[in-house]
Amino acid sequence: VRERGPKARRATQVRLLGLGDRPSGPAPHVVVALDTPYVLGDSRARTARIATYGETAGAMRALVSVLLGRTKAPGHLPVRVGGVARSGC
User: How far apart are CA 23 and CA 46, in angstroms?
Assistant: First the structure.
């Protein structure tokens, strides 16, 4: 869905990244790592970085629930990722 005008400028921007993807363009509010957390290290997310570890329908439903504020994401990264605090994602 593409919005234009003031409403679109206020919308939360989410970028999905997978293995081999590189951040590009303006920094989004949220960056989501789909299959590897290592892409989060280079991301320029303004608000949050999230790792889903999957692209299944269930993973996407859980992601949407977190993005809408219906569910918390209490997980933590199981590996060190340069540029990302290990305490949470």
Answer: 13
